[in-house]
Amino acid sequence: MHDDSAEGAIRSTGSRPQASPDASRPAGAWRRWLRAGAVLVVAALVLAGLIRGLGVQSFTVPTASMAPGLTPGDRIVALRAPALLGTVERGDVVVLDGRGSFVGGLPPDAIAQVGAWFGIGPRDVYYVKRVIGVGGDTIQCCDDEGRLLLNGEPLEEPYLNDQDRPASGADFAVEVPPDRVFVLGDNRYDSTDSRDLLGRPGGGMIREQRLIGTVLGADGP
Question: Which of 63, 169, 175, 187 has the most CB atoms in a 10 Å sphere around its CB?
Fold first, then answer.
């Protein structure tokens, strides 16, 4: 004779509902989406950092030292390539890190310098000036017509704010060492620039490695 109860028990055990293979798919899909989203966010942050560090950075003009071309509140974009490649030229308008020169104290260390290249760190240490001389140049103020002398030749400066006044209110004569630049503001009578550093270490010259980039253009505030 067959034991129907035992057979029923076996049938009952064998008929227990099993978890569907599709039941875990929603959770797994969400985890995959979250991982993909995290990767995209990290990639976007890295790309943004590379653009700032190797491409362009934006700044706001803080003072009137570059008037009339740039006025306080103007938004400017600085191209990094000339500073990175060492191709900054006379006449270029540049953004520079003023720590160790215009800003008192020691120059930024290597980490702070790299941070500045990537737009990380304090924002009140940047200055906008025009490069007047590069390594090997001599600059003197002024000839009988009030013009600067660059390597012994009068320098025409149509960008100056005060065209009817000498190019500088203070006389000076300097020679720019290698790997440095001499910078002035276009608004010479309302500008803190290399002239204010002549008596300090470095003689008013800014290290090329402190240059952030050359200004491409500006938008009003």
Answer: 187
